[in-house]
Amino acid sequence: MRFALGIDYDGSHYRGWQTQQAGVPSIQSTIEKALSRVANHPVILHAAGRTDAGVHASGMIAHFDTDALRAPKSWLLGCNTWLPHDIALRWIHPVSDDFHARFKAVARRYRYIIFNSSQRSSQLAGKVTWHYHALDFERMKHAASYLVGRHNFNSFRAVACQSNNPVRDVHFLNLTKRGSLIILDIQADGFLHHMVRNIAGVLMAIGEGKAEPEWVQQLLQVQDRTQGGVTASGSGLYFVDALYPPEFELPKEPLGPIWL
Length: 260
Known about the structure:
- The protein is of the alpha+beta class.
- The protein folds into two domains: 2-104, Alpha-Beta Plaits, CATH 3.30.70; 107-239, Alpha-Beta Plaits.
- 21% of the residues lie in helices and 28% in strands.
- It has helices spanning 27-39, 72-82, 137-145, 195-207, 215-222; strands at residues 2-9, 46-47, 56-65, 87-95, 107-116, 129-131, 149-152, 167-178, 181-188, 237-243.
- A hairpin with an 8-residue loop joins strand 2 (46-47) and strand 3 (56-65).
């Protein structure tokens, strides 16, 4: 039987989602160990995305296969019992065998949260990116508008990105402000390695006055990562949702992070 999972986690103390060599903490291996204890057999997870070290999620979707007969509530409660405090399953739902968390996703959504204040916050440490220089919110919104649509994002991906195709369709990139917090909310048909963090770095540079909003247009045209800005910290990044065809009938929860 195949089950889909909704997961949230604080990635501060992990080297990213993907399982790595022994002794290196990852989100995937931690959840697999918990599920395996409930299933009484080894479990392998497949996720909608692979977050980097220090990156969080409030709506990661994954799936696994099992021969063990357990009610969804038993899976949920049992797994959460074995998970550490910074990882939690939000829901579990039986799905058909043709569901795949990665390959059936038609879009993914991230939020990047900036704490724009002259002084740091101890309560937000590790949960946001602190930017102490004043940011011009309207300049950032203007710059962000150039990124919506189908573009070659070579200038906004990591040098080590392994994707063969740098073209992505950004459905929307909305910026909102709540007090000292600036929230970048972006959805696309897919993302390149470090794409959101590089976008955030460019927008913060523009908001600080280091470049004009039209710099975004120039970066899209030159298609050269070396011309881009600094990669922003992973601490402000959240995987908040993956979208699937409606026939899978996955549970939907309010977008996170829950504290926002």
